[in-house]
Amino acid sequence: MKAPFKFLDSYSQGDMEVFFGRKKETDNLYDALSGVKHLLVYGPSGAGKTSLIECGLRNQFSDADWFALTIRKGKNIVESVFTAINEVLKNKLDPNEALNFTNLVESLFSEKYQPVYLLFDQFEELLILGEQEEKESFFKAINELIRYKVPCRILFIMREEFIGYLSEFEYLCPTIFQNRFRLEKMNRNNVQQVIEEILNAPFYKDKFIVADADREKLSKKIIERLPDAQKEIELTHVQVFLSELWERASEGQKGLPCLEDTLVKESDKLETILDSFLKKQLTAMEEIFGKKIPLEVLALMISERNTKLQLTIKEIKEELQAKAVLLEEVQVLKVLDVFEQNRILRKLGSEPNIKFEITHDLLALAVGQNLTEDIKLRQKAVDIYAIYQDRTALFSQTELDYIRPYQSYWDYPVKLKEKIQASEVAIENEKNRALTEAIAIAEREKRLSEKAKRRSYIAIVVAMVAVIASGLARWQYQQAKVKSQEAQLAQKKPKLL
Question: Which of 138, 189, 251, 293 has its CA 20 to 30 A from that of 319?
């Protein structure tokens, strides 16, 4: 038997019996929807936005009041809107209608005769992960839907730190900021009250025992061990902690587990509890499926920011095959099933469009922190390859030297490999050209040097000849001078009689 608490799951429509502490916010959200076509619901991460919508708000409406579809970005948000609506239609639509949201909603309303509500959960995924064309197409289509007459209301549910990203698309959907609702986290006092209500809930009477005297002491002990950013606490953290205490209390226990404050340890921290839970599950699964196999599957399902991603079974199989993780299709399905049973993954949608995702970003973060060095380097290689492939120019030797070590962790994609080979050929050609040019320059300099030497020899010879000629001329001059003097002396001697 597993712990009866929500753990990392959001509250859903069927959890109203144990959904405590949000009545006021639920009523306010219901009122905020009155008379508006769309509403931006935002708040900090962990405030419980999804639970407020899926449990609190859904229980405010009767089936006749609304027909609500929760939509996530998925691979492409436009396709996700089409798939979500087309799945519930009796008369299926042509995929070419995907961009025409007004026709999609009109078709849905004409079959259901209920006001349509489109709930875009974790809407920030579109803003931070979507392609530019995808974003622009969505906001154009959603603006047309907002202005259309069919009874349809739209909720954009997102983390508040990403609201600024919407400004870029305000020109496509001018009213995007017009109607807003902010959900805050609970303070310590409210959370303590929620814990006490959970421990006293009739729904849990056959799941565990808590003595009346221990209820307040236990709730205070739990509060002390939870992260307390700005005096605010996430209810998800409470669920994780309660689940851990239930597991401890149930060890070796034949009857109902007894929750009491002595179960809380001084060393208890949310991070260590989640990390311990994940490691325990991975170790158990490795004995069945092989070393690192379960972690390899989870590694596919987190982004570079260690947030959760949605993948179909087909995408998971293709990714594993691309990473040379050898796992039969039957085994892939078994791994996913075990992860789902252990509340690490959840299943979304229905056949044939089932997707899987990690149950919470907190657990996705724990997965990211448990990745082996090989997996991290392989993922880094994929990111680097993507950047290199976007380059139009050939690579330099420095760039090739940087990327080369990653090949041992992840082989180059075909196009990148071709570009690397072309770059290597171009570099080699450039080296050969430079060498040929250097040799030519050396030969030219040698010829010039030899020519200079010959000129130098000639100059020396000419100089020597000049010196000799000058010496000879001087000698001849001296000789002539001597002869001239002798001649003069001879003329001056008296003639003999």
Answer: 138
Q: Give the whole-angstrom CA distance, residue 202 versus residue 198.
A: 9
Domain that includes residue 198, residue range? 187-268
* β-bridge partners, 39: 155
Q: Does some domain include residue 316?
A: yes
* pLDDT of res. 229: 56
- b/e for 311-322, b at 16 or more Cβ within 10 A? bbbebbbebbee
Instruction: Please indicate, yes or no, whether residues 118 and 41 belong to a single structural domain of this protein.
Output: yes
User: What per-residue string of b and e applies to 346-385 under the rule 16 or more CB within 10 Å gives b?
Assistant: beebeeeeebbbbbbbbbbbbbbeebeeebebbbebbeeb
**Structure-token pair, residue 271:** 């991070």
C-beta of residue 225 within 8 angstroms of C-beta of residue 269: yes
- Quote the pLDDT of residue 149: 87
The pLDDT value given to residue 178: 94
Residue 230: per-residue pLDDT: 55
Q: SS3 for 231-275, per residue?
A: CEECHHHHHHHHHHHHHHHHCCCCCCCECCHHHCCCCCCHHHHHH
Q: How far apart are CA 331 and CA 146, in angstroms?
A: 45
- Sheet containing strand 116-120, strands side by side: 67-71, 116-120, 152-159, 38-43, 180-182
Cβ contact 209:225 at 8 Å: no
DSSP state of 412: P
Task: Using the structure block, give the residue that is written with the tokens 């001296």.
Answer: 478
pLDDT of residue 69: 96
- Kindly give the parts of the chain with pLDDT less than 70: 1, 228-231, 350, 492-497
Residue 126 has, within 13 A of its CA and on its CB side, a CA count of 28
